[in-house]
Give the backbone structure.
Amino acid sequence: MNIILLGPPGAGKGTQARHLVETRNMVQLSTGDMLREAKDSGTEMGNLVADVMARGDLVTDEIVIGLIREKLEDTTDHGGFIFDGFPRTLMQATALGELLEATGKPLDHVIQLGVDDEALVARISGRSTCGNCGEVYHDVTKPQPADGKCEKCGASDFKRRADDNEESLRNRLMEYYKKTSPLLGYYYAHNMLTRVDGLADIKEVQDSISKVLDA
Ligand code: AMP
């Protein structure tokens, strides 16, 4: 089963994707993670996108489509793909449709995580992750453990994303509404879209997504 998680920054796409990886042997394809890796390892492409990402702008369709194409070709033997943060434009959506068709894989569901902007600002401004296993923490709702060790893996290397600040977030939201939200209409018209309440607690969102996937 192959699915897209669609929603603005901070909607919980990464958190829900991680749960699906753990419970269903699915593979998370996050273009944001791929770009951050390229940036951290200082590749030519990584250097090219660093400023664009810091501002909260979208990187070019060519770059992200190329990243996804490579992963789709290289990854085998699993319970399906979760596209997280991709597609973000109509051109990316069309390219994904073509790539999946060429490899004989269906797109089964597009799940919209619905949230409101106020909640996003609060969520994103307190966000941090474990640098080792990716477990997500939040200053208010899920603080880092008092002993300074990740509750999942025990590492003590917590990270905050450079683009999790208010100015960049505002820009990321604007990009979402201008370029990504038209995908809601696109997938609705293809009869693939289901909306779940992204503001419910994490477990409830997990259950809502499971219901969609198991229907
Ligand atoms: P994310 O981790 O999904 O929030 O992505 C972080 C940043 O990476 C975004 O603000 C964009 O600058 C860039 N990015 C990630 N995925 C895409 C995409 N599909 N298209 C364009 N830019 C992307």
DSSP finds nine helices and eight strands in the chain. The mean pLDDT is 93. The pocket of adenosine monophosphate is lined by residues 9, 31-32, 35, 52-53, 56-59, 64, 85-86, 88, 92, 163, 172 (CB under 6 Å). The beta strands are 3-6, 27-30, 81-84, 109-114, 127-130, 136-138, 158-159, 193-197.
